[in-house]
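ok so i was messing around last nite and threw this chain in just to see what happens. nothing serious, just curious
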Amino acid sequence: MSWLLDESHLADLARGATLLGTGGGGDPYIGRLLVAEAIKEHGPITVLDPEEVDDDLFVIPTAMMGAPTVMVEKVPRGTEPVVALRTLEQRLGRTAQATMPIECGGLNSMIPLLVAARAGLPIIDADGMGRAFPELQMETFGVYGVHASPMVVAGDRHETVVVDTGDDDVRMERLARACAIQFGGAALIAEYAMTGADVKRVAIPRTLSLGIGAGRTIREAREDHRDPFAALAEYFAGTIYRNVRPLFRGKVTDVERRTEGGFTRGGCAVAGFDDGVLELRFQNEHLLALRDGVPVCVVPDLICVVDDTTAEPITTEGLRYGQRVVVLGISTPDIMRTPEALAVFGPAAFGLDQPFVPVEELVTERLDVPAAV
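result:
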């Protein structure tokens, strides 16, 4: 069933999508402001359930790409993603009938909403990552046969580049990344054009709703003086993500972060309040969590760093010495755990030696984080 998304949903979506973004996906603050203004000007956005769209509906997903550290200072004009969409329409000779996110991340849950509002399009409640990944080929779309090319990369001066590498999505990522670097480290994109029938087959369903629900769960738990961590575990248990595991609780004691090759790369150390150390490694998003050298969560499962009192998500570019945090592991949907999917965005795709083991097997302890005080 379709529904209307308005300004009242944006704060919860920003919070929940940032959680699901596993540290990446970009800070949603600027995107949220842009979407709020677009909704005021054009009205609420129609959200389509992926299982109910017509098979011949023509869909063009939209997003922002680049290093999250750059996005903090390089603010988009707000018109670039529509330019990317219109340029791809011209290349394909078809007009989009809907847009869709490519990932469930903070900023990248906002960009398609901005396109939907400004272009007068509905948005599909689904995406191709169910979280955020650093590279454009890391999509369930491509894993299951819908390729990104041709795609359009647009800069803030409305320069556009069409990238067409056929079925080679890895090559597409490399060329698009080079364009984004030349555009100042970040760019707006339109890619993975597909039909409604494709959406039903290759997308992860209802992730916009999931982001709103997760953000609402955190907010309402705080308002009711309930444990937001326990509330999150209860919420996710009723979704295709199912399992939330406590990985660690402590204070950030070290952050190493650099912008390199169009990505934010680095790591973080968290010292336990009782004992032990948790090490995080990231490339835009958190990829691996090691507790005293032992893996406790690995990509594509979600590694989420949140404030230890409020459960507010913290992005990789937002990590700072002295922050008191809880680190959670959340299981990904089954569509992201197949051999085909792991070949594209499992640990080996990031050069990690650690094999993928589901977080619910690495950490059998269920969430019992002490209530916020």
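not much to say yet. Residues 369-373 have pLDDT under 50 and may be disordered.
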